[in-house]
Amino acid sequence: MVEHIAQPPAAPAEAGAVLTLVEAVRAALWEEMARDPRVIVLGQDVGRKGGVFKATQGLLAEYGPWRVLDTPISEAAIAGAAIGAAMMGLRPVAEFQFADYIHPAYDQIVNHAATIRWRSVGGWGVPVVFRAPFGAGVRGGVYHSQSVEALYCHIPGLKVVVPATPRDAKGLLKSAIRDDDPVLFFEHKWSYRRYREPVGGPDELIPIGQARLDRPGRDLSIITYGVGVHHARQAADALAAEGLLVEILDLRTLAPLDHEAIARTVRKTSKVLILHEANKTMGIGAEIAAFIAEELFLDLDGPIVRVAAADCHLPYNAAEEDAIIPNPDRVYQAALRLARF
Amino acid sequence: MVEHIAQPPAAPAEAGAVLTLVEAVRAALWEEMARDPRVIVLGQDVGRKGGVFKATQGLLAEYGPWRVLDTPISEAAIAGAAIGAAMMGLRPVAEFQFADYIHPAYDQIVNHAATIRWRSVGGWGVPVVFRAPFGAGVRGGVYHSQSVEALYCHIPGLKVVVPATPRDAKGLLKSAIRDDDPVLFFEHKWSYRRYREPVGGPDELIPIGQARLDRPGRDLSIITYGVGVHHARQAADALAAEGLLVEILDLRTLAPLDHEAIARTVRKTSKVLILHEANKTMGIGAEIAAFIAEELFLDLDGPIVRVAAADCHLPYNAAEEDAIIPNPDRVYQAALRLARF
Amino acid sequence: MASEEQSRASSPTTELVVESASEATPLDEGALLLRIYRLAVLTRAVDERLWIFSRQGLAGFVLTPRGHEVAQIASALTLRVGHDSAWPYYRDMAVGLTLGVTPYELFLGALGRADDPHSGGRQLSMHLSSPRLRIATVSSEIAAHLPQAVGAAYAARVLGQDSVAVCWFGDGATSEGVTHEAMNLAGIHRLPVVFICENNGLAISVPLALQMPIASVAARAAAYGMPGTSVDGTDALAVYRACQAAMARARRGEGPSLVELRVPRITPHSSQDDDSYRSEAERAAAAAADPLPRLRRELLARGGWSEEADERLVAETRAAVAAAADRALAQPPPPPERARRWLFAGDPPHPYLAQLERAGRAEGDRHG
Amino acid sequence: MASEEQSRASSPTTELVVESASEATPLDEGALLLRIYRLAVLTRAVDERLWIFSRQGLAGFVLTPRGHEVAQIASALTLRVGHDSAWPYYRDMAVGLTLGVTPYELFLGALGRADDPHSGGRQLSMHLSSPRLRIATVSSEIAAHLPQAVGAAYAARVLGQDSVAVCWFGDGATSEGVTHEAMNLAGIHRLPVVFICENNGLAISVPLALQMPIASVAARAAAYGMPGTSVDGTDALAVYRACQAAMARARRGEGPSLVELRVPRITPHSSQDDDSYRSEAERAAAAAADPLPRLRRELLARGGWSEEADERLVAETRAAVAAAADRALAQPPPPPERARRWLFAGDPPHPYLAQLERAGRAEGDRHG
Ligand SMILES: Cc1ncc(C[n+]2csc(CCOP(=O)(O)OP(=O)(O)O)c2C)c(N)n1
Ligand SMILES: Cc1ncc(C[n+]2csc(CCOP(=O)(O)OP(=O)(O)O)c2C)c(N)n1
Ligand SMILES: [Mg+2]
Ligand SMILES: [Mg+2]
C-alpha cells in the first residue's frame, strides 16, 4: 500500500515562503504534527490521496496511518471520534471533504463538541479542529458550493474561523490546533490557489477572535471575510478612482466576533457595507448589522448595507451561479450608492 | 397490543372550543388526518404512548399503525423517510421528540427537504411538516430546552413557523400540512398547557408568512414570537402603567419573515425591541434588526434593542436558567430604557 | 396490526419475465443479453463523449459508470418503468439510459443547459431526475437517498400501490449512519425496497479494508432481517436474476433485500481525480474486468450476433450519440434571472420538463 | 501498516480476576456476588430516595436503573477505574456507584446543587462525569457517545496506552446511525472498545419489534467483524464473565466486542412517564424479573450470607443514603452569575470538582 502513496512533497518551507492558501493549510498541519505528537488528522481521502484538494498531501508518509487516518464515509463518526479522542488527550483535526457534507455531523458538533466543557463544569475539554473547504464560484453545484459558517455562530461554545489569505490561514490554523476548545475552520476553495503571499514561520500564531484591518480608509467600511476580502479589494481599487477611500476589515473570526474592531471602523467611517458570499438572510452579516444598530446607532450616517448571496442554493451552471453570488462589481455599485447616501 | 393503547380521547371539538396549545396541535392533526388520507404522522412514541406531550394521543386508535408510526430512534431516517414518502404523494408530519434531537436530521432537512424542488426544477416536491416541541423554562437541561428555529432560517427552501397561541397553533399547523413545501413547526413546550383560548374550526387556516398584530400601540414596538408574546404582553401591561403604549407584533412565521408587517410597526413607533428566547447572537432578531437597519434606517428613532438568551446552553438548575433566558421583567426594563432614549 | 390488512400478495413473476422498460413479454436469455449489450454500448458511447467534453472544458465534472454498466443495466431492467420508483446515485448513467432517459437529456445536464429536464443545469452531470419515469432527483451526497427510498416504499404501502423502491449506491455509502437507519426501518416493516450496492472496492481512494471490517456488503443484510446476495456485477444474467428475485420478493410483500454487485472501477473516481493512489497493477486489473468485451464475447459465442452486427451497432450508436451531443451543445444556458425559480411551489413549470412529462403521460395513456 | 507496531499484547487476564474498582486480587465467586449485591442494595436505596425527591418536586426528572442494577454493576466491575474510560448513558447510576461515584455526589446532581461535580447542577439527574474516574460526561442524547468512546479507544492506541473504552447504551440506541458508524470504525481498526447494550426491550414506549427486524442485538456484531454475546442481565456471574472476556479481548489488542445484557425495566421510563402503553401483565413480568431478590436468594443459598446480615446491610445502607441526601439537600444552588462559566477554557475550576480531583490524584499517588 505504501508504495502507491503520492510522492511525499518536501516538508513545508520556512517563514517568508510564498504559498497559496491550500499550501499554507498543509504547512500548518505539517508543522503542528511535527511539533506535537498528539495532533492527528482524520477524514475521507486525507491519507493515500492526500485530500481532494491536496491539503494533507505527504502527511501519511511522514506521520503514518495512525496519525493520518483515511476514514469511511461516516461524518458523524469522524466528528464523534475526534471529540472522544480529544477528551482523552489528542488534538484531532477532522476534515470534511466539502463543507456541504458537514451536516451529517451537525449533531456531534452542536450538541457535543459545543457543550462538553460547559456541561461538565470544565471537567472535560474538546480541543478539536473541524476543517472544511467551502464556498462558491467553482461550478460545483448544490453540494460543492455551500457557505455553512453562519450555521455555527448561534451555538455557544464554538469558535468559527475563516481565513482570507495564506498567511492568516497558516497562523490561524496553528492557533486553532493549539486552542483548547472546538474550532470550525472553513477554507474558501475558490481562493485555495488564486493568491500567493509570504507566510509566517513555525512560530507565527495569529490569534483567534481578532479582525485584521486589511486596508485603512475614510469614507466607508467594508466588513467582510474569506473571498469577500478579495472582492472588497477590487471594489475598493475601483472606488479609489472615484475619490472614495474604503476601509476593509477582514473579520477572520466569525465567532467570537471582534466587536471592538467593528466599532472602531464604524466610528471612523460611519458607513458600513457588510459583504459575504453566504446567503444574505441570517448570514453573519445579520449579526454584525444588529450589533451596530444596537450599540453604535448614533455613530451611523447611513443604512447598513449587506451584499451577499441572493438566498438561493448554488447551481452548477455559471449563468445562474453568477446571478446569485456577490462579485466585485456588485460591491462597487452598492458601495457607491451608500457613499452617496 | 391494541388493548394497551391509552384510551382514545374524544375527537377534537368544533370552532370555538377552548383549547391549550398542545390540544390545538392535536386537534389540527386529527382534523387533517380525517380530511386527507395522505396525511401520516411518524416519530418516536407518537403511537402507543400518544407522544411524550400527548400531542398525538388517540391518533393510533383512530387512524391505525400505518398512518401513525412509532419509529425507532433514527432521526435521520424519520426525516428521510418523510421526504421520500412526500415525494411519492403522502403528506407526512414527522415529530422530533424534542427540538434538541432534531440535529441528527439536519442533513436530511437542509440538504434534501430544502433543495429537492429547486434542484429538480420543480419536478419533485416535499410537502413535509417537521414538528418539534422546543424552548426553555421547564428545567430540562441542555437537551430538553433548546431553541433551534434560527438554525433553519439561513436555508432557502424551508419555511419556519412558531405559533404563540392555541388558535394560531391550530390554524398554522393545518396550513403547514396543506403546504406543498417543507415546513418546520416549532411548539414552545412551556406554553403547551399554560394558556387556553377558543380555536378556529376545521376550515380555519392561518396563512404562513403573515405576522399578527397582537396588540396595537404607539410608543415602541416589541417584535417577537412564541413564548416571547406572553412575556411581551406582561411587560406591556406594566409599561402601560408608566403611560407607555407598546405595540406587540407576533411574527408567527420566521421564514419567510413578514417584512411588510415589520415595516409597518417600525414606521408607526420608530422604536424597536426584538425579543426571543433563543440565544441572542445569530437569533432571528439579528436578521430583523439587519433588515430594519438596511431598509428602514430613516424611520428609526433609537437603537434596535434585542432581548434574548445570554448566549449559553441551558441548565437544569433554575438559578442559572433564569439568569440566562428573558423574562417579562427584563423586557420591561429594556423597553423602558429604549422608550426614554 | 392493521398493517396486515394492507399487505397484499403481488402478481406472480417467473424469473426471466421482463416486466420492465416498456415490454412485459417473456424474453429468452439471448435477447436479454443483447438488450443489455445495446444499452451498454450506448452508455459507453455517451461516457466517451462526456470525457471529451470534460477535456474541452465544456463539462465541469464527469462521473463515469465505466465498469458498472452491466450491473446498472441488468438491475434497472427489472423495474416496471414509471411504476417502481428508482433511487440511483451519481454514477448511475446506465440506470437512467435503461429506464428511458435519453443521451440528449444527459448531455443537456452535463453541459449545464437550460433545457436539462433533470435539474435545468443546476446539478453536476448524471444527477438524474424524472417524475414521469419515477426517477428521484439524485443528489451528490452519499447515502442520503436511502431513507428517502424507504419512505417511498412506505408511501406505496399506505397508498395501496404495488410499487417497489429500488435504490442504488456505492460501497462507500454503507458506512453512513443513514444507511443503517434506512435498512433497519425497511426491515422492521417489510417494505418493498431493493437495495443495490455497486461495490467497486473504493470510496474515491479509500479501499474496502479501511471502510469495513468484513469482506462482504451482502453479509450485513442479516442485521436487518433481509436476504443478502453478492454477485459478480459483470455477469449480466447473474445480476438480472438476483435483482429479479429481490423484486419478486418485494412484490410478494415479503420485504426488502440487499443485492451486492461486485464491479470494477475502470477510470479515476471522476474527471477531477488522478487515481494516483492505485498501483499500475490495480488499475490494469480493473480494466481487465471490463464487462463490455466479456458480454460481447458471450453474445458472439451464443450465436445470433456477429462481428459485423457489432461494428454496425457501435458505429450507429456513436453517430446517434454524436448527433445528440451536437444538439445539446447548441442549446443555451439558463437565463440568469431564473436562478431562484422553483425554490417553492407555485412557479411556472420548466418548459422542457413539462413537455417530456406531457409526452410521457400521453404515451402512458396509449399503453394503459 | 505502521499500526502494527503500535499494537501490543495486553497483560494476561484470567476470568475471575477483578482488576477493577480499587482491587486487583483474585476473588471467589461468593465474594464477587456479595460485592455486586452490596452495590445493588446501595443503588436501590439511592434510587428510592430519588423517587421521593421527585414526588416532592425537588428533583425534576428521575431516570431509574431499576432492573438494570446487576447488569450495570457486574459489567462496571471489569474496568480498571481511572484507567479504562467509561461511557455510560443516563440510566447507569449503578455504573457510577461501582466506579466510585458517591450517593452524595449523585444527590447533588439530582437536586441541581452548585457543588454537583458532574455538571454543577446543569444536567438532569444521573448525568455522570468524572475526569478522575475517567467517566465521560453523559448527555441525554441517545447513542451520541458511541463514536466518542471509539475515539477514546483510538486515542489510547495513538498514545500507546493500555486503556479500554467501555460504552453502555440501551436497545433504543441501536437504531441510531452513529451506532453503526461507531461500531464499524471500531471494527475496522480493531480498537479496544466494549459495547454493552442494556436491552430492556423498550425505547420509552416503542417495543423491540418496532425497533429492529431481528430478535437479538448481539447478532449485529457480525456486521462489524466482532463477537457478540447475549446474556441474561440479571445473572450477575454471567454478566461479569461476558464483560471480562470482552475486556480481555480488547486488552489483547484483538478489537471490540458487543455484549447484550437482557434486563427488565421495572419502572416507567422516567418520573415523567406513565407506562400506560404496557399491560398490567407486562409490568408484572418486569417486576418479577427484579435481579435483587434473585441475587439475595443466591447469596443466602450459597451460605456465608444470612437474613440478619442482609437486614443489617439494608438498614445501614438506607441510613447512609439518607444522611447523604440530607447533606446534599443542605447545599445551595449555583450562583446565577456562574451560568456562562466553562463555556470555554480558562475559567477557574469548579471548586468541589477540583477538590475531588486533587484527592483522587493523591490517592492514586499512594496506590501507584
Ligand atoms: C456525505 C458525503 N460525504 C462525502 C462525499 C464526497 N464523496 C463523493 S464520492 C465519494 C466516494 C463514494 O464512494 P462509493 O459510495 O463507493 O461510490 P463510487 O464513487 O465508488 O461509485 C465521496 C467520499 C459525499 N459526496 N457525500
Ligand atoms: C437522539 C435522541 N432522540 C430521542 C431522544 C428521546 N428519548 C429519551 S430516552 C429514549 C428511549 C431510549 O431507549 P433505550 O435506548 O432503549 O434506553 P432505555 O431508556 O430503555 O434504557 C428516547 C427516545 C433522545 N434522548 N435522544
Ligand atoms: Mg465505491
Ligand atoms: Mg430500552
Tell me what the structure shows.
The complex is a heterotetramer, with two copies of chain A (341 residues) and two copies of chain C (368 residues). Chain A is of the alpha/beta class and 341 residues long. Chain A has two domains: 19-198, Rossmann fold; 212-339, Rossmann fold, CATH 3.40.50.920. Chain A is 33% helix and 18% strand. In chain A, strands 3-2-4-5-7-6-12 form a seven-stranded mixed sheet, with helices on both faces. In chain A, strands 9-11-10-13-14 form a five-stranded mixed sheet, sandwiched between helices. In chain A, strand 10, helix 7 and strand 11 (246-250) form a beta-alpha-beta unit. The N and C termini of chain A lie far apart (64 Å). Chain C has a five-stranded parallel sheet with strand order 1-2-3-7-6, with helices on both faces. Helix content of chain C is 43%, strand content 8%. Chain C is globular. Chain C is α/β, with parallel strands linked by helices and 368 residues long. In chain C, helix 2 (29-55) packs across helix 3 (69-76). Chain C has helices at 3-6, 29-55, 69-76, 93-99, 103-110, 145-159, 177-188, 236-251, 280-288, 291-302, 307-329, 351-367, and strands at residues 85-87, 165-170, 193-199, 202-203, 206-207, 228-232, 257-262. Chain C is built from twelve helices and seven strands. Chains in contact: A-B, A-C, A-D, B-C, B-D, C-D. Chains B and D meet through helix 3 and helix 10 of B and loops of D. The structure holds thiamine diphosphate (2 copies) and magnesium ion (MG) (2 copies). One thiamine diphosphate sits between chains D (91, 140-142, 170-173, 198, 200, 202-204, 265, 269) and B (44, 73, 75, 97, 101, 104).
